[in-house]
Amino acid sequence: MHMSPRTIIIGGLAVVLSVVAVVVFLPFAVFRPTPTVTTLKYTALEQEGLELYKSNGCMYCHSQFTRPHDHNTSRVSVAGEYVYDQPHQLGTLRTGPDLANIGFKRGDRWEMDHLLNPRKYTPNSIMPAFSYLSEHQLEALVAYLNRKGNKRNASTDLMIPAEYDDVKQPLELSIETWNAGRKIYAERCLTCHGCAGKGDGPYAYINNARPADLRQPRFKGLDANFFFWRLREGVPGTVMPQWEESLSTTEIWQVIAFIQGGFMDMVPHFTDEGDLPADYAKLTDPLKRDDANLDAGKAIFNMNCAFCHGYGGMGDGPDAAGLAPAPPNFHDTATYAEWTAPDYFWRISESIPMRAMPQWKYVLDEKQRWLVSNYVRDVLIFPPAEAEPVDPTIPTAVEAMTMPKGADIMKGREVYLKRCFTCHGDAGQGEGPSSVVLRPTPANFTDPDVDEIPDFELFWKVTMGLSNSAMPQWGLLLSEQDRWNALLYVKKTFVAPSEPQDVSDELPVAYQALEPTVEDTTSARAAGKLAYEAFCSECHGPKGLGDGPYGPALMPTPANLAEDPASVSPAEWWYWRLDQGVVGFDGKTPHPTAMPAWRFILTDEQKWDIIFYARDLVGAKDGAQ
User: Fold this and answer.
1) In the chain, what is the greatest distance between 2 CA atoms, to the nearest angstrom?
2) 396-495 has which fold?
3) Per-residue model confidence (pLDDT) at position 489
4) What are phi and psi of 4, to 5 degrees?
5) What 8-state DSSP symbol labels residue 101?
6) pLDDT tens for residues 437-487?
7) Do the beta carbons of residue 367 and residue 423 sit within 8 Å?
8) Among 3.30.70.1050, 1.10.760.10, 1.10.600.10, 3.10.20.310, what is the CATH number of 162-262?
9) CA-derived radius of gyration, the chain
10) What is the model's pTM?
11) 3-state SS record for 414-460
């Protein structure tokens, strides 16, 4: 057969069209996979985001499918997840990361900020900045991205793979191993898991799957092979990476030695600090001691150190419990008053052998360490005798801010008890546990003058903190919503309190079969007496008669425990009141009183100790049991 040019061209086109028909059009026409249980039609906002994803060419750099041999990266994709998608939007190149399972790994605000300025989070990123998109367009694009792999409640198999069954810690515990692991932890893990391993690092709150709290009891019973597996292979569905890609096997074991020893207290501690090294002893403080530098030091301290050391430097931060040895109390002047500036700088830089405290030289630069050193020494250890707080300058735009309608008083109560109680106290009168060493003393919210301050000014003080005081810049640590929530609780409970309605004394079902977790012994009552005097007597009085010094400024006034239903209620009723506090309702709106939910502050043992002591104090009867 003669192959003319015309025949070759027509035949070639026929072959190409046949291949396209078989490979492209036929599968597209007959492929009807069953949607997975989590595959839903796009909402209007998500559909708008999809169109933006395509129009901005995102598929040229990002793929949206995880192949079987990519299983270590994330969960393998299945056909049913793409029922409402088109093939071309899945991409073929991976100049940027695969997005198949990106959804809900981080919060919306983080994703929007990343789109606006990618190099803020990944300095070497070649992704363009989408700063020309409107706020609504950014929200739409993020809504679409969050559809990708949004298995927020998917279960994860925690069985250790068989290949890890016989894996053992190969390193001998030593100061060298500990310090090597601590260095790696500070450089790689601290930003998510926090300096005390509680899962509350600076990046923790932008991740929807919160980093693990390594101090939870469940981790203490696990062998080292569990941690080796998790560090080596990462955790699917979270931002926890596969560290085998960037750390050697030895480095992974060093981190495990530090984690188990520093946060789980599973190894002995060698706490000899040694002498100030010569290269630190010759240093001199290069910074000017002024308010600006002290404020800068305070911001760094509150962001990085207060979780363990407490905002007042008493070693009573929210993460301090369980650390061994416990964080120091900087107000122990017998120890710390004699330290020189290089002493503080050395300990901040190098930490102390076999402690959970990071070597901050791997996280903070030299100037930042000097700023923290000066703040600790000049404000926490040697506070000015007559210090006066300096209010922040209020921008004109802030003066238009008002209490948002969506402010949640119950969430505000939780924020207050977790963040503000140690200084301002449970009654809001500026006499919390840390207040005795702070100069100036924390504000008394029951002072009538506070009621004259407009909401925007109070909000800005909370946001920016107060110069020349230990009051943090909460804008660095709390979301705007949390700050408004806390302010609403303060105003309704302390500044302008009112009598709540519908306060129920009926014991909830969940507490009715409660059994004490400690025995009612003489030592338990002695411990309860100390805890009662520290936390309860200021409102309820030394004899439980509701005549404590803080009572007159509170509404409702503290209960007289001898006449309250408490006197004839069982122990579990007392536990409920301590655990949940007292909350009434104004219609359907919760109205908490100044009686706090002590579950945010006291341990279970402390609550039972107080109950044993207080019931005996007021002669509580057991007839209702």
Assistant:
1) 115
2) Cytochrome Bc1 Complex; Chain D, domain 2 (1.10.760)
3) 93
4) -80, 160
5) T
6) 677 788 999 999 999 999 999 999 999 888 777 788 888 778 899 999 999
7) no
8) 1.10.760.10
9) 30
10) 0.52
11) HHHHHHHHHHHCCCCCCCCCCHHHCCCCCCCCCCHHHHHCCHHHHHH
